[in-house]
Specification:
The protein has seven helices and 15 strands. By secondary structure, it is α/β, with parallel strands linked by helices. The strands form three sheets. It has a seven-stranded mixed beta sheet, with helices on both faces. The model has no long low-confidence stretch (mean pLDDT 93). The structure holds flavin-adenine dinucleotide. Flavin-adenine dinucleotide binds next to strand 4, strand 5, helix 2 and helix 4.
Length: 276
């Protein structure tokens, strides 16, 4: 029997700086067979390991439609990520997964999709964004709302700006304040963007990811707009260890965020006593 905790070796192909303390790591699984068989869904995560430091769960930031390379957008936060940031291109790390449920793509299909991201919350949502754009006919309207504190904190800036010219997505970017004097689009918190669009809550699924304070206001806004709680998908981050539902570290009530989540509907979350 294979050991589920055994990581596969993966080479860092390219490191692309994003903002202070956040980098995009492009990695490739070393074993060709494992690489070819690797499949994930938007919203799933992997456990990454750097020799001698332990493991950390990281969402896959690339779309399942782009195979061969796995992209991880990582903030330097502690033990494992500090060690990762010391590595250079061509270094080898460990990867196991993918784990977790991911976004409910079968349910979203045929509906409008509203993606609301704040700060580093864009990292997991980027996988959903590109998956839906690469399968554009499966969805009705696609709307992206993304906000950061300042222009310098916006992730994937070039990529997201290129969406402003596309006719098949409404891309709304905003910053709380413009400290550069060069910001050409919206200024204000992400909830202000709701005033710029009209939504059909009965035929739309919303996916949100961002800091806790953003959840509070965005959830309130979505409910005011008439969204039912089971059309709102959010990710729960809990400290995880095994990633496969064995160690109980990430349990919330009777759910494990690693296997039942990390994506939950707002309805599920409201029914988890510990989170409420
Ligand atoms: C499903 C999932 C997906 C994620 N995706 C991403 C992603 O795409 N990108 C990303 O950058 N991050 C992501 N994270 C967060 C990332 O896993 C954490 O930041 C992780 O802790 C980093 O590991 P580390 O060893 O570098 O940091 P750690 O050494 O674990 O430290 C991180 C922070 O946690 C604090 N801490 C350490 N131990 C404890 C403890 N026992 N209890 C409470 N706090 C503690 C530390 O003081 C520090 O502030 C994700 C988390 C989950 C659960």
């Amino acid at each position: 029997m294979t050991n589920p905790y055994m990581p596969h070796l993966a080479k860092i192909i390219r490191i692309i700086p994003q903002i202070d303390d956040v980098r995009l790591f492009q990695i490739r699984l070393e074993d060709e067979k494992i690489r070819n068989e690797f499949r994930h869904r938007p919203g799933q995560f992997v456990m990454i390991s750097v020799l001698g430091t332990g493991e950390a769960p990281i969402s896959i930031s690339s779309s399942p439609t782009r195979t061969g390379i796995i992209e991880l957008c990582i903030r330097k936060a502690g033990k494992v990520t500090d060690a990762l940031f010391r590595l250079k291109e061509n270094a080898v790390i460990g990867i196991r997964g993918p784990y977790g449920n991911g976004y409910f793509m079968e349910r979203i299909k045929g509906n409008n999709l509203l993606i609301v991201a704040g700060g580093i919350g864009m990292a997991p949502l980027r996988s959903l964004l590109w998956y839906s754009l690469d399968n554009r006919d499966d969805f009705k309207d696609i709307i992206l709302m993304y906000g950061t504190k300042t222009p310098n904190e916006m992730l994937f800036k070039d990529e997201l700006f290129s969406l402003l010219d596309r006719g098949d997505i409404k891309c709304l970017l905003t910053v709380d304040k413009d400290d550069t004097g060069t910001w050409k689009t919206n200024v204000g918190v992400v909830t202000r963007l709701f005033d710029m669009i009209s939504l059909s809550p009965e035929t739309t699924y919303a996916a949100i990811c961002g800091p806790p304070i953003m959840y509070q206001f965005v959830l309130q806004k979505l409910i005011e707009c008439g969204f039912s709680k089971n059309r709102i998908m959010m990710s729960l981050e809990r400290r995880m260890q095994c990633g496969i539902g064995k160690c109980l570290h990430c349990s919330v009530g009777h759910k494990y965020t690693c296997t039942d989540g990390p994506i939950f509907t707002y309805w599920d979350v409201m029914n988890m006593q510990e989170v409420v």
